[in-house]
């Protein structure tokens, strides 16, 4: 039974990370239009919730897409 709970927790955590990645990309798209493939890939490789939260704030505050870095 513990094994099942661990799998469910991992699935939930992965879902939270996926949503956070989507939020960062959505913020960038809303502000700057199409997000380059390499930027999307860099965001999609971030596996830390705190880092993704920081990136979301950065996406909202940065002046240009060129200033955004992962």
Plain-language structure description:
The protein is mainly α. It has a domain at 35-70. It has helices at 2-32, 37-44, 49-61. Helix 1 (2-32) packs parallel to helix 3. It starts with a helix and ends in a 9-residue tail after the last helix. The model has no long low-confidence stretch (mean pLDDT 94).
Quaternary organisation of the protein chains: single chain
Helix fraction by DSSP (H/I, runs of at least 4): over 70%
- What order do the SSEs take from the amino end to the carboxyl end, as H and E? HHH
Radius of gyration: 14 Å
Task: Report the portion of residues in β strands.
Answer: under 5%
Structural class comes to: mainly alpha
* Count of β-strands: 0
Give me the secondary-structure topology.
Blueprint: H1 2-32, H2 37-44, H3 49-61
Helix pairs in contact: 1-3
Write a concise synopsis of the structure shown.
By secondary structure, this protein is mainly alpha-helical. The chain has helices at 2-32, 37-44, 49-61. The longest helix has 31 residues, at 2-32.
Characteristics:
mainly alpha; about 70 residues; 3 helices
């Amino acid at each position: 039974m513990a094994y099942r709970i661990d799998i469910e927790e991992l699935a939930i955590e992965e879902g939270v990370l996926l949503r956070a990645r989507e939020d960062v990309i959505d913020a960038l798209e809303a502000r700057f239009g199409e997000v380059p493939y390499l930027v999307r890939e860099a965001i999609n490789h971030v596996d830390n919730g705190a880092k993704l939260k920081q990136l979301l704030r950065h996406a909202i505050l940065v002046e240009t897409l060129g200033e955004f870095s992962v």
